[in-house]
Amino acid sequence: MKNLRTLKKYFIRYKKKLFFGFIFILFSNAGTVYVPILMKDAINQLQNNTTTHTLLYYSSLIVLSSLIAGIFRFLIRQTIIVVSREIEFDLRNDFWSHIQKLPLRYFQNNSTGNIMSHATNDINAVRNFIGPAVMYSIDTGVRLLIVVTIMLSLDWTLTLAALFPLPLLSYGVYRIMKLIHEKYTKIQEAFSVLTTVAQENFSGIRVIKSYVREANEIQKWKNLSKDYLNKNMNLVRIQAWIMPILLIITGISIIIVIWIGGLKVINGSMNLGEITAFIVYLGILIWPVIAFGWVTNIVQQAEASMKRLNKIFAEPYEIDDNEETDYSIKEIKGEIEFRNVSFRYSEVLPNVLTNINLKIPVGSTLAIIGHTGSGKTTMINLIPRLYDTSEGEVLIDGIDVRKIPLDVLRKHIGLVPQESFLFSDTITNNIGYGLREICKEKIIEVSRIAQFDKDVETFPQGYETIVGERGITFSGGQKQRACLARALAIEPKILILDDSFSAVDTNTEEEILKNLRQYMKNRTSIIISHRISTVKDADIIIVLHEGKIAEQGTHDELVALGGLYADLHFKQLLEKELEELN
To answer: Where are the alpha helices (DSSP H) in 102-165?
Structure first.
């Protein structure tokens, strides 16, 4: 149970409710175990020519004891089981909060489906341990202690004889539970794969249909489902042994009590009431013994799930505020400097960026151009600290970005990534995603700047139109313009456009750039593009080649230089002329 020890902080948080739950367990069991004593006395009275009044007296006490046991049983569930739900709520929120803070590197190495299975199956398995397992562990432990004590007081030799088979039960359960732990871990891993495939199919349904791969995906799903079924059936076959073993061993105990107890009644060393109470107590013990196996099963499943969750909780944030963070910084102006910056994604991989030195004054526009894989996106991802540099430093307003609080840094940066992503929500909520309070006038204004307002007017519900998952109802150009509007809505000091006009026609692009020049006055802009027409008016243009700045200057200076930029420029001019001729 070493992995389940991490739940200690949650139990401490609700220790008051758990304490009352323990008290309720004591009272509930007191009512339960008092019933056989009343039955013993009632049966003994029957042997002594008892009256109707006496029978009514004992019957009333038995009903009262059962009622007390039932009321406190209800209160147990209102405390311990409720606490399990509250801890599940806290655990799920902590898991979600931790996932949100993990670096991009983690999500690149772990599938969405795998993470989803942790958030569903694993957390639910842990909740079963917190609630039913904890409740029944305490309940059966207390009941076992009280009942065995009373049985020993009635006849210690008969008690020892009745309990003799139980060590065999413990050993059998131990062996079975060890196998259950191994099988359940494999089941959870198979479920992760199943969830991953489901998520990928739902997200990539257009690709599947386009390539007519439905039958292939159906067969693939059947194979994975069959594997998941087989792993579950392996577990079920092992679990199927638990109940028969429990019932056989407890049945042996009952036979021992009836045989030995019956002989004692015959020779007069026990009376009929005591042997009856003994058999009832043994019946009461059957549930704790059965619950022991059931609880052990739950604990083993929770242990396997908590091990998987702890592995995620152990993942370091990598990028977070630390002791060097200057919390006095509340605003940034927008001057950016790359000072001897090099970056690689891991120690075993080569540098993606090498010795980048660049200064971008406040209010200027930097354009980055270069072939695919030259490091353009990696370079701009260092500014909002989606990654940290391997060497050197990125500064904003002369301050290392690692010293600026993350929330301050990122709330002043508007980033439009290469891959446009929209939530399955209204256009208004998508554009206003970064705002604390949505202002309709601002939504309309930034939509106009992004040349998106005319498109919105054609939608049936206007700005309240649901865009569908990942913006499935939008064209590529519409998604890019909606994402641009979302970035502009937060009024960023630094606007980063990572090839954000690739799906937009050149006329619309010119209008957007014209609007941006006015909107981004006195703010810093960074534009990544493959089109010379997009970057030619930038204050500074750099050409990245194999992770290094190969050329730097204005459009005219770079054309005059006759290098990589000039070559790309003349190729695009030729392409344009050929298009016009056609």
So the answer is: 104-109, 112-117, 123-128, 134-154, 156-163
The Cα–Cα gap between 256 and 36 comes to 19
With helix as H, strand as E and coil as C, how does 392-459 read? EEEEECCEEHHHCCHHHHHHCEEEECCCCCCCCCEHHHHHCCCCCCCCHHHHHHHHHHCCCHHHHHCC
Q: What is the pLDDT of residues 298-348, one digit of tens each?
A: 887 788 888 888 888 888 888 888 888 888 989 999 899 999 999 998 887
Give the per-residue pLDDT at 580: 66
pLDDT confidence of residue 276: 83
Residue 5 belongs to a domain: no
Q: Which of the 8 DSSP states describes residue 350?
A: P
Q: Are residues 107 and 237 in the same domain?
A: yes
Q: What is the pLDDT of residues 255-308, one digit of tens each?
A: 888 888 888 888 888 888 888 888 888 778 777 766 776 777 788 778 888 888
Whether 177 has a pLDDT exceeding 80, the answer reads: no
Q: How far is CA 296 from CA 33, 127, 167, 299, in A?
A: 24, 14, 15, 5
What's the domain count of the chain? 3
Instruction: Pick the more confident residue, 168 or 55.
Output: 55
Alpha-carbon separation of residue 61 from 41, 51, 146, 276 (angstroms): 11, 16, 19, 17
Which stretches does DSSP call E strand in 274-374? 336-343, 353-360, 365-370
Domain that holds residue 404: 330-412+494-512+523-582
For the sheet containing 548-553, what is the strand order? 413-416, 494-498, 524-528, 365-370, 540-545, 548-553
**Residue that is written with structure tokens 């109940």 in the block:** 243
200 and 338 fall within a common domain: no
* Six-digit token string for 23: 């008290």
> In this structure, which amino acid lies at residue 177?
M
Q: Which of 89, 94, 97, 180 is nearest to 130 (CA)?
A: 89
Alpha-carbon distance 79 to 19, whole Å? 9
Q: What is the CATH number of the domain that holds 361?
A: 3.40.50.300
Q: What is the DSSP letter of 469?
A: G
Mean pLDDT of 488-500: 89
> For strand 548-553 and strand 494-498, is the pairing parallel, antiparallel, or unpaired?
unpaired
Residues 6 or more apart whose CB falls under 8 angstroms from that of 576 comprise none
Which segments within 300-360 are labelled E, that is strand? 336-343, 353-360
Beta sheet of 336-343, edge-to-edge order: 353-360, 336-343, 391-396, 399-400
Closest CA to 318 of 112, 113, 118, 98: 98
Question: Could you tell me the CA-to-CA distances from 567 to 2, 548, 555, 577 in Å, in that order?
Answer: 64, 18, 12, 16
Residue among 87, 80, 65, 195 nearest 133 (CA): 80
Query: Do 512 and 450 touch, CB atoms closer than 8 A?
Result: yes
